[in-house]
Amino acid sequence: MGIDASARFVGMAQSLGGQAVHFLEHDLAGGVIPVGCVDVIFVHLLLAHLRSPREAVAGWTRALAPGGVMLIDEVETIETDNELLRDYLGLANHVVAARGATMNAGPLVADLGSLPQVAMLSSEVVEHSVAVSEAVEMFIMNFRTIRGDPSLREDFDALDAMAHGLRRLRGATSTQRVVWRMRQVALRAA
Questions:
Q1: pLDDT in tens, 8-39
Q2: Cβ 6 vs Cβ 28: under 8 Å
Q3: In this structure, are strands 177-189 and 64-80 parallel, antiparallel, or unpaired?
Q4: From residue 188, how far is each of 67, 75, 112 by CA, in Å?
Q5: Cα angle 81-90-130, degrees, rounded to a multiple of 5
Q6: From CA 106, how far away is CA 51, in angstroms rounded?
Q7: Are 31 and 53 in contact (CB under 8 A)?
Q8: Would the pTM of this model clear 0.90, i.e. be above it?
Q9: What domains can you pick out in the chain, each with its CATH number?
Q10: How far apart are the first and last CA of the chain?
């Protein structure tokens, strides 16, 4: 079962997933998973969108069956030597912070083993290094979304220049890399 707050994304996922997978529209920010006891919960790049990630995870653990496992995969850091991408990441960090969250949610989940009713099985940082031309594909999709955020008081010419620069990087043959350090946590219900 997949859960997302966006009816549009739930519809897209259901049309691609077929009958074997069910998708549900629900906002997970309140810490409630609207299903019975489950054996596995996988959380990937969600906590950066929540104001209270620790409290949300604490609530979600109540949906785990005894011995059930929650797997969490969140950004610890994103690093690059590319100046345009550093500027983009600064802009993305600003927008997420304006919504009361943090883009680098990995450090916030590193100690979730202290939550009641769960035990920490593992907490480690795994590095993923990709070419700038590959990373920029994701950045462009996100930029389209964050560009219109009300928290941005950037001048439109600067945003247009960033959009143009990101598109140019799509086909770049640069040896520059973008390195994601992902915090991967596994919790087991008591």
A1: 989 999 998 888 889 999 999 989 999 879 99
A2: no
A3: antiparallel
A4: 6, 21, 11
A5: 40
A6: 14
A7: no
A8: no
A9: 31-189 (3.40.50.150)
A10: 23
